[in-house]
Structures are given as C-alpha cells and as structure tokens.
Write a structure and sequence with these properties.
Elements (H helix, E strand, L loop, with lengths): L27 H11 L4 H4 L7 H8 L20 E5 H6 L5 H6 L34 E5 L2 E2 L24 E7 L4 H4 L6 E7 L5 E11 L6 E11 L7 E12 L13 H6 L3 H4 L15 E5 L6 E5 L6 E2 L7 E2 L14 E15 L3 E17 L5 E3 L6 E5 L3 E7 L15 H6 L5 E5 L9 E19 L2 E19 L4 H8 L3 E2 L6 E2 L13 H10 L3 E23 L2 E18 L3 H4 L8 E20 L4 E11 L6 E13 L2 E12 L3 H4 L2 E10 L2 H14 L5 H10 L6 E8 L7 E15 L2 E13 L2 E2 L11 E4 L4 H15 L19 E7 L1 E2 L2 E16 L5 E17 L20 E11 L2 E10 L20 E2 L2 E2 L11 E10 L5 E8 L27 E9 L1
Parallel strand pairs: 2-5, 30-35
Antiparallel strand pairs: 1-4, 2-3, 4-5, 6-7, 6-45, 7-8, 8-13, 9-10, 9-18, 11-12, 13-14, 14-19, 15-18, 16-17, 19-20, 20-23, 21-22, 23-24, 24-25, 25-26, 25-29, 26-27, 27-28, 28-31, 29-30, 31-32, 32-37, 33-36, 34-35, 37-38, 38-39, 39-40, 40-43, 41-42, 43-44, 44-45
Length: 1007
C-alpha cells in the first residue's frame, strides 16, 4: 500500500514522523501529520477560533484519538499495532468494496461474500474475518461506534456486521487494530477491530463513476457511482454538513457463461456434468416435453423406463431403456453469481455551540437487493429414493417428509405402454418438466434495509474533554425463496392423494387440477401455489447510550499522565418470527428458524496512558461488562512502549477478551433447516462399491449408471435441528503482542509484531460429522432406487458381455440414508493461534522523475491448534499449512508518482497448503492417494493446493484539480484458478478468481 499501514509516516505526503522522540513535540508539523493521518480531529481542533489562546489551543490540537484507545494523545504511535489503509490505497489495490479491501490484507482471512452467500442463512451479506477466528471475533465499527448486526445470522448462529452496509463513498480511511480490544470496546473484539472512518469536514461537490468488466466471463460487471456534496466550514462558519450517496450494481452470472469455465479436473470428477446439461439433444426451454414413464420389474427390482408418447428428444443407450430429455436452462444464476443492487446514503453534520461544545450527527441508510434466477423450472419427478426430510417449528422433533407421487392405473395422464403398466399393477412413475410458471419464476431474492442514527455532544472543561452520544441502529433482512413445494398448494394441483396399501406408494388424483400435456396460464396459477414464494424475515435492533471524559491526572517524569472514564448502556433485540407455512411444516426443506431474544447490557471502563520516563510509556485499560445470565465480565489490557534508540521502539500488549453468546445461540427458538454435505461413511462406501463395478462394464448403460451413483451418497442433504442453549458461557481469550518499529534511515521504516490468541469456552454449533455432537439420528428405509441399483449390478455381473469379473458376494445396502440429525449449541474446546506480522515501507525521491513508494506486508502463521476436550486434548495438532490455513500471506506494492500520473502495482500472495484440513485427515488427503475432499485432484497438485499470486496494475491521471481518470488491470497475467474439490464450484473462490484478467475504469469530477 502506498501510505502507511502503521502510524509513524504519511508516505503520500512524504512527511517523516520520527520515532526518535516517544512524544512528538507540539509543532506545526505534528499538527499537520495528525490532520493528515486522522482527518477526524477532536473538538479542540474544530474550535481554533480567533481570539483563542494560541498556546493552549496548540496543545489541544496536537492530541488525536487512535483506534483501540479512548485517550487523546500527541504521539500517534501506540503500544498496539494499527494498520491504516487510505482511500488512495484502496484505489491502488483495485478494490471496489470493503470486502475486497479485506481480502487483500494479510491479517484478514477469507470470509463470506455476498455474491456466494445463497443458502447460508445470512444470504446477501459479507463478513469481516481477522486471524481466521471468524466474523464473531472481529469487531467492525463506524467512526468508533458499533453498528447493528445483520438481520440473519450466518449459519443461523453467528451474528455479524454486514460490511456491505458501510457507506463506501464517504470513507476517508480504515484503521485495522490487529490486537485484542475487549478492554476498550467490549464483546467481539478478540481478533481485532476494523474501524471505518469517514470524512469529518467536506465542502463542495464531486461525482465518481466506476465500471469493472472481465475478459473471461462476459456477463460479469461491477458498476458504481457516487455523489458527495457539503457546505459550511467549521473554522469560519462554525458548522459543516455533507452527504454522500453511493450506488452499486453487480451483474448476475448465468450458468450459460460459466458451465464450461470451471477447472478441467471438475469435469473429470463429474463425468456426467456436461452430458446432463443435454445441450443440443434435449428439448429447448419453452418447448413442450411429454416426459418419461418408468416402473420397477417385480422379479428383479430393476428400473424400466420409456419415453412418453410424442417425445421428440429420445435418449437411448441407458440400461433402463429410452427416456425423454430436456436441456438444463442456462439462465441459472444461483451458482456463479447473483445480481446485487445496493444504495447507501450517509449524512454527517457538525455544529459548534459556544466556545467549548460541539454537536454532531450521523445518519446512515443502506438498501440492498440481491436476486438470483433459479434456472430450470421444477420437475415432477416421482420419488423412488429417499424422501425429502426436514424439521419445522410446530412439528418439533417429528421429521416432515415428502415424496413426489406415482400415477395410478386409472389416471387420465397415464399413457404408458401396457408392458410397463403391468409391472406394478398399472402404477407408473413420471418425470415431467413443469414449465408453466415461466423461465424467471424460480430463484431467490434477498433484501436488507439497515440504518443508524447517531447524535451527540462533545466539549471540554478546563483540560478535560468529554463526549456523549445516543445511537439507534437496526436491520430488516428478508429472504424470498421460490424453490420448494408447499404441501397444501401441491395437493390442490395434484391431489387428493391415495396410498397403495400394499407398497405404501403415494398416488396422485386420477383427474388432477394440473393438466399434464399442455403449457397454460391455468397450470401456471396452480404451480405458483404449489411452489410459492415464501419469505423469511429477521429484525435486529441496537440502542446505545455512551459517555466518557478524558484528561490529565498527573505530571510524571516522562510527561503528562492522562486517563479516560466512561460508560455504555445498550438494548439489543433479535427477532425472527419464521414463515408461518414453514413453521407448520408445509414448505419442503424449509422448517426455517425462529428466534426471539432481547437483553440489556451495561459497561464501565477506564484507561490511562502514563509516560513513566521520557522513553517508557504505560497504557492500561479495564472494562466491566454485565450481560444477563452470567456474571460480570472483567476485561483488562496493559501495553508498554519503549524508545530504546532514536531509531528503535519496542512495544507489547497483554489483554483478555470475551464474546457474549449471541441471541441466536442463547435466546429462545431454534433452527429447523437442512444440512448440506452430510457424509455417511457407511452409505458412501456401499454405493461407491456398486458404482465402481458398474463403471468397469463394456455396456454403456452400466457405465452411465455407475457415473451417476459415484459419490452420490458421500455428501447428502439431511434435515437438521439446532437448538439454542441458555446455559452457554461467554467465550474468553488471552491475547498478546510483542514487536518493534525500526527506522534506520529517513526513507525506510520496518515493523514486526508477534501476536498470540488463546480462545477458550468456544461456542460451537453441532459438528454433525462427529457422532458425539448428534443427540438423535434417523435413517430412511432402503428405497426403490437402492434396489434398482443392486438389480442393475446383478444383471451386469450375470452378463459375460460386460467384461467385468465380479466378486462372489456382490455389494449391496445394509441401511438407508440418514434422514435427520439433531444437536445443540455448546461451549466446546479451545483454539490457540499465533504468528508474526511484518511491515516494511520505503520511499524514494527520483528528482524530476517524481517519487517512488515501495511496501511489503506479510502475516506468517506459526501455530493453529484446537483442543476439543480433556480426552482428546489438542486433537488436530498444528494445522498451519493445512487447507485454508496457509503459513504465509503477503502483499507487495509499488506506487510511482510522476507529475499528474500515479502508477501502482499491487501483488497479492497466498502460500500453498496441504489438501487435508487437519492432521487426522491426511489419511484421505495426501500425495499417495492424490485426493482431496475424498475426490481425485490433478497429478501436479497431489501434495496440496498450490501457492498463488496475482498482480494488479493501475494508472491514475489528474489532468486538472477537478478531473480524475483511472484504469486498473486486475489479475494482470490472466491466471486461472486451480481445481479445488472443497469448493462446490470446483474453483478457488477465496483468492484465485474465475474472472481471469479484468479491467476497471474510473472517472471523477469535482465541482
């Protein structure tokens, strides 16, 4: 980054701030630096009116507030490491959102991004994640104060601030405290604090527009426009008011632009993927398709199928017989990228009242609308395998289940051949495409409306400064899904149903309201009731009242000792009533969530900065927080800063952090939802044994069936119930840093900090991959599809033409698939992580050729250990260097300023990792097996995910003081993602972009 990531220098202005004096002298240079770095001077800075005493005001002007402290100080370097990212830095790295900024910080780890957030429980939002400890351990502030949580918790558990709701156009800079800060800010600050700071004083107007496009994905595009305008000068007019409005749009990426862009290994591991799209062979969208009838041979259990009369797209060669096929509709936007529209408004006002008081007000409002087309319409496909299973609020521990029914022998749409009808007494299954609702009906939409209104006063009396503010913030998030069956609506379209007493098969009405064989408006109305759009709404509210005073309390040998005292009172609510139909169990796969929680919290805090000598400074803080249901939490922090030499400063901190259980974890209600990716080793091995034998056959139908069965039972979606736990204790943490800042030359600054976090009493959702976390597990019975697969295998082994040598005892099934699991949130285990942050900055004057700034920032992880319980101990060992936990993350930048041009190069590097997620997982993820996530990987990647780097190049031109034109080439060398079997898209979404080389163009004008 071109400007300082820590505080001693402002490289953009080329004004050195030497660490040779632990206390920067009060001088015009110090005042200019403080203004340049912080852009948010305290009240005294705004009150430098004519007639004031110059000396007294200069002393006040030199004091600024730093993220992680309540005390104003003249030395902007503290004992805690703070990274500063300016607005120019953000432009140079090619970032257009706060999420993209954090993805380029070595101390940050990948987190949820809104474009791939569908079906996460917190759809349409983005998270911050420092040190890999999760969004729940990273505190996000706007101008030093909290925002309300996003309406829908991630995974129905983790409450977090949606960083997409922060007004990007108003950002002056970001300050990232990579140290614990519970002693200053309270809960959630174990991994660190991200403080987004807006402009304080703005006059005039400007407009900016940016657009991004990809060389590889034609449909990709990000577009932004912002308008900022303000009036009034605090010094002259004694007030300033400005507002900014930011408009953002990201275009959707349909399947048609992505299906063939995945890494090659994805298609090797999914051999039927492209074939199953049926491009060029199946009926086209909008064309009538009569479907396929099928039945099961009562003697062998084998499936037998035939295309319905009138089919023009018959597929032959399958062992079960011919069938009628349709193309997958390529407008599916769920997988690759949803469309997002976002509007953010921000108003900031400051007014001076008398000589010593200032009033301030902030208003923030964000409206987010995310949409994704679901693609192919739903199909009526008679269920022969496991029923769809789900929990719901009103049905409690009883699992709801749904099967698409069969057609009875007297059904008016049963036109199967006599031979097929005879197999099951006239009953047949049906596969039929329900196109009547249209090509854009199915899908998902998420809306989020968030706000914060803050007003306060600050002032001074004598040498003491005071500040108080009241804020109210909230979010209203709504998920609209049009994807699943409503049982009542389905019954109106296809019922009433009967049940075959001999087989238990469900049979639809002989004369259903829905008319098979036509596409009509009447059918469309029925389908919109059978597959309705249902909503899931959530509300969060946060009301806070805070106050603090700060000033000198003693004169020590090294200088003035200052202290701060304050309080915070908050009222927090979280309410998710749940969709009524889902609560009653009427929406398949959507039991939904239901939460109703509220609490009052209280906090007192104190802090002091004591210059013990002219070289040694002590910073100490203490905060007491009282939450309902557990004892008051005391969070201390102590820091030391020592100026060893004029060029060398040592610093270190120790603190204790905590995270209170969220209202989603410890409130009233629960999660009644689906669990994707559930792995049942028993069924996985049994199905794959059948599949691998079928794939050896010389008969094409056997091979296709084997490919379809391969790994299908290794990752299932099952019903899950996750119950809150009101007995949860808060998470606790011990946090420490130790480092130095070294400036051997005027043009070089180097800092290094060791960091350590030990978190215990972690609040965890049930890990349903571990039997000890499952309080109840239910299996479905062995199905018709299971028996058909076994019959197909037996037929193949009995046919010498297959060329397969089968074992004496053929593989089969001993149990059905898991249908549901139940678990509860609980305090479990500990995590220990530590490592090093390194930052080096240099600047060079090139004379008439301008100036060159070069920087390096890196995070080197040392340990990452998990302790489950006393029996297992540090069960996973050290997982640094394992999947998603690289040892090294680094960025390198170079910025060249020449006349009216600025050229920037930004390189982002992520170290390689093993495929295994942990030591005990290496049995299935290693060089010998050449697998990851239980799937084969390319030979060059047998030893793990490769190290990765990308480079961005940007050029900015300012022909006048009013005009700015910029172009950025992202992923300059057009590096394409490697195959990642742990990603459902097969690519690496965290840092290896699917978009290839992309281009960004920016133009701005100031009035």
């Amino acid at each position: 980054m071109s400007s300082a990531r820590r505080r001693p220098r402002d490289h953009r202005a080329h004004r050195p701030v030497s660490c040779r004096n632990a206390r920067i002298p009060v001088a015009p240079l110090s005042l200019a630096l403080a203004a340049a770095l912080l852009g948010h001077l305290p009240l005294a800075a705004a009150q430098d009116a004519p007639g004031d005493k110059a000396e007294g005001k200069t002393t006040e002007l030199s004091r600024v507030e730093v993220t992680g402290s309540n005390i104003r100080r003249s030395d902007v370097e503290t004992a805690s490491p703070v990274q500063v990212i300016s607005k120019q830095d953000i432009e140079n790295m090619g970032a257009r959102t706060l999420l993209q900024v954090l993805d380029n910080l070595p101390a940050a780890r990948p987190a949820q991004q809104d474009s791939r957030s569908l079906f996460t429980g917190s759809d349409g939002a983005s998270q911050a994640n420092l040190r890999g400890l999760g969004a729940q351990a990273t505190l996000v502030l706007l101008n030093g104060r909290r925002l309300s949580y996003y309406g829908a918790p991630a995974g129905f558990q983790t409450q977090f601030v949606n960083i997409d709701s922060i007004p990007a156009a108003a950002i002056d800079r970001m300050e990232v405290l990579t140290d614990g800060a519970s002693a200053v800010y309270g809960t959630d600050a174990m991994a660190g604090v991200i403080n987004v700071i807006t402009k304080r004083n703005y006059q005039g107007a400007e407009v900016t527009a940016t657009t991004d496009m990809s060389s590889r994905i034609d449909s990709y595009g990000e577009h932004q426009a912002s308008v900022t305008a303000g009036f009034g000068d605090l010094d002259k007019d004694r007030f300033n008011v400005y507002g900014t409005f930011n408009f953002y749009r990201r275009d959707a990426i349909p399947l048609s632009d992505f299906y063939d862009k995945r890494p090659n290994q994805y298609y090797i591991n999914n051999p039927n993927y492209l074939k199953n799209l049926r491009l060029g062979t199946g009926s086209k969208p909008g064309e009538f398709n009569p479907g396929t009838y099928f039945a099961f041979d009562p003697r062998t259990g084998a499936r037998v199928q035939e295309a319905a009369p009138g089919c023009k797209n018959v597929l032959t060669g399958e062992a079960a017989g011919p069938r009628c096929i349709w193309q997958t509709w390529m407008n599916n936007e769920i997988d690759a990228g949803a469309q997002t529209e976002r509007m953010t408004g921000y108003v900031n006002a400051h007014f001076l009242i008398g000589e010593n008081t200032e009033s301030f007000t902030e208003l923030t409002y964000t409206d987010i609308d995310l949409r994704a087309n679901g693609g192919t319409p739903r199909a009526f496909s008679t269920t022969t395998g496991n029923p769809t299973s789900w929990f719901s609020r009103d049905t409690g521990a009883t699992v709801n289940q749904f099967l698409y029914p069969f057609l009875g022998p007297n059904n008016e749409y049963n036109h199967a051949s006599p031979e097929l009808r005879a197999m099951m007494g006239g009953v047949v299954g049906l596969q039929y495409l329900l196109q009547d609702a249209g090509s854009d009906y199915f899908g998902q939409r998420n809306t989020d409306k968030s706000y914060r209104a803050l007003t306060g006063l600050r002032g001074s009396f004598g040498d003491w400064n005071w500040e108080t503010a009241f804020a109210t913030a909230g979010t209203h998030s709504t998920t609209y899904q049009t994807i699943n069956v409503n049982l009542d609506g389905f019954r109106r379209a296809f019922g009433p149903f009967t049940v075959d007493p001999g087989t238990g098969r469900v049979i639809i009405s002989d004369h259903p309201a829905y008319k098979f064989g036509e596409i009509s408006e009447a059918n469309s109305k029925l389908l919109r009731e059978a597959y309705p759009t249902f909503d899931i709404q959530s509300w969060t509210r946060l009301h806070t009242l805070d106050g603090k005073i700060e000033g000198p309390i003693a004169q020590l040998k090294g200088g003035e000792m200052r202290a701060a005292f304050g309080f915070n009172i908050s009222r927090e609510t979280f309410y998710t009533p749940g969709n009524e139909d889902a609560a009653r169990g009427l929406i398949t796969q959507q039991g939904g969530s239901w939460f109703d929680g509220k609490r009052n919290t209280y906090a007192l805090f104190a802090e002091t900065v004591a210059p013990l000598t002219d070289k040694l400074e002590l910073d100490a803080a203490l905060r007491v927080d009282k939450y309902p249901n557990f004892n008051a939490n005391v969070a201390p922090k102590i820091g030391l800063k020592y100026q060893v030499l004029p060029q060398l400063m040592l610093r270190g901190t120790y603190s204790e952090g905590f995270r209170a259980p969220s209202l989603a974890e410890a409130g009233t209600g629960g999660v009644f939802a689906q669990l994707g990716g559930f792995r049942d080793e028993q069924r996985c091995s049994e199905t794959n044994a059948i599949a691998n034998l079928l794939r050896q056959s010389r008969r094409a139908g056997d091979v296709d069936l084997g490919n379809s069965l391969l790994n299908v039972d290794c990752s299932r979606t099952v019903a899950r119930m996750t119950q809150p736990n009101q007995e949860l204790k808060p998470e606790k943490a011990k946090i420490a840093t130790l480092g130095f800042v070294f400036e051997p030359l005027d043009w070089l600054s180097v800092s290094a900090d060791y960091w350590f976090v030990y978190r215990r009493n972690e609040i965890s959702a049930p890990d349903f991959s571990k039997i000890q976390d499952i309080s109840e597990l239910i299996r479905s019975p062995i199905t018709d599809s299971d028996r058909a697969a076994v019959a197909a295998l037996a037929a193949m082994c009995a046919d010498p033409a297959s060329g397969v040598t089968c074992p004496g005892t053929l593989p089969g099934y001993s149990a059905g698939n898991v249908a549901s699991v139940v678990g509860q949130y609980k305090n479990r285990g500990r995590t220990l992580i530590d490592g090093f942050d390194i930052d080096a900055r240099s600047r060079f004057s090139l004379g008439e050729w301008g100036n060159l700034n070069i920087g390096l920032a890196a995070t080197l992880a040392n340990r990452n250990r998990s302790y489950l319980d006393d029996e297992s101990g540090w069960f996973y060992g050290d997982t640094v260097g394992y999947y998603n936990n690289p040892r090294l993350r680094a960025t390198i930048n170079a910025d060249w300023n020449y006349q009216k041009f600025t050229t920037s190069v930004f390189v982002n590097y992520v170290g390689g990792t093993k495929w295994a997620r942990e030591r005990v997982d290496e049995v299935d993820n290693n060089e010998q097996t050449c697998t990851a996530g239980y799937l084969p990987v390319p030979k060059p990647q047998c030893d793990g995910a490769p190290s990765w780097w990308t480079a961005n190049l940007s050029l900015n031109w300012r022909p006048t003081d009013k005009i700015n034109v910029g172009v950025t080439v992202k992923n300059l060398f057009d590096r394409l993602p490697f195959y990642d079997p742990n990603s459902f898209l097969g690519d690496s979404p965290d840092y290896a972009s699917i978009f290839g080389r992309s281009y960004s163009f920016t133009v701005g004008y100031k009035f």
